[in-house]
Amino acid sequence: MAGEKVTVAYEVPDADASWELEEQNVPETAWHDAIIEALRLVLRAWASRARIDALIASNVALRWEKARWKIGVDPDMTVYIPPPPDGEHTSSVCLWEPGHAPPRIAVEVVSRSTATKDYVTAPDQFAASGTTELWVFDPKRYGPKVHGGPFRLQLWRRDEHGTFRQLYRGDGPCHSPELGAWLVITDEGMRLRIADDAEGVHLWPTESERAQVEVERAEARREQAEAERERAEAERAEEQARREQAEAERARAEAERERAEAARAEEQARRAHLERERDAAKAEAARMADELAALREALARMTQG
Question: Which of 56, 117, 157, 286 is the most exposed place for a label (fewest CB within 10 A)?
Answer without folding.
Answer: 286
